[in-house]
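Please check these two lines:
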Amino acid sequence: MAGDLTDQEWVRLAPLLPSMAPQRGGRWRDHRQVINGILWRMENGAKWDQVPDRY
């Protein structure tokens, strides 16, 4: 989608994020999906409850 991280950007960013391996206390959401949601919110100036469900 427009504004989402490109594959090239994701390749550079992904190694800097915590492991997606299951750990005690719950499972991580997909990091790329969360970051794209944050970027969408910043770009659109929306409130958190207005962020589309896909994020």
The mean pLDDT is 89. Residues 28-55 form one domain.
